[in-house]
Amino acid sequence: MSEAAIAMADPLEVAARWISEGRQVALATVIETWGSAPRPAGSHLVIDGDGHFEGSVSGGCVEGAVIAEAIDVLQSGMPRLLEFGVADETAWRVGLSCGGRIAVFLEPVA
Fold first, then answer.
1. What sequence ranges are listed for the domain XdhC- CoxI (predicted)?
2. pTM (whole model) above 0.90
């Protein structure tokens, strides 16, 4: 498979491939958005234990924060709900200064 094809792959297909390769994988799913959040509910980002990722939950606004949390989720084995928005103290740090809020459910998958 070419690099371009891999880059355009469905995140859930990538997760299945990574799991079959024996990698630890976390799945981040947008569960709710408000305002100008750039990705709709149901969007996915998959992250492996080394921080490699595929997909998007915010078009780049919060991916770095979600990836960092994913590494912790993989180590602890415990899912968590992440919320980002302009009313949140992390809004300026993660780039949602344009407005909106996003809720992302992050879970380890086997």
1. 18-85
2. no
